[in-house]
Design brief:
five-stranded antiparallel β-sheet; 5 strands
Amino acid sequence: MPTVVETLEKNPEDRALLHDMYRYMFLNGECYAFAIALNEGLGWPIVGLMKGDVVWHAGVRAPNGNIHDVRGELSEDAFAAYHLSPSFVIRTIEARELYATRPIDKHTIKHARHLAETLWPELPWKETYAMKVRAFAEELEALSRKHGCWIPGQVPA
C-alpha cells in the first residue's frame, strides 16, 4: 500500500499539500538537515544565517546568488526575515559546522532530499533516485545482453 507521501508525489497539484506538511519541520528545527540535503543533491554551498557564531538558520546559495531553503528560492532579506531582526550576517559555512552544532540524523537528510527532489524536480540535481533506478536498469540490461541471461519477472517487460 502506498504511503501518503508516495500518493501525493504522483499528483502535482497536491505538492503544495506535501510542502505544507513538512515546511514547519524543516524551517524550525531541521533546517540543518534540509541544507545538507540540498548541498549534497545540488552541490551548492551551504550558507548560515549567523548571529555571532550561532547558525540560526541554514540554506544553500544558488549560482544566481539567491538562497534556497524549504520555502524555495529566496532573496537574502527574505531568507533572514523569518528568523531575525536586521542584525544578521549571512556567510558560507561547511556541513561540518552544522554537525558540530548538534546531531543531525542521516535519515532526516535523506527524507529532506527526497522531499526537495519531489517539490522542485526542475533544479539541477546531481543524481536523483529516478536517475539511480534508470542507471541500474540500463546496466542490468547491458549485463543481461552480454551474458544472454534474463531474469524473469511477473510482468513481461
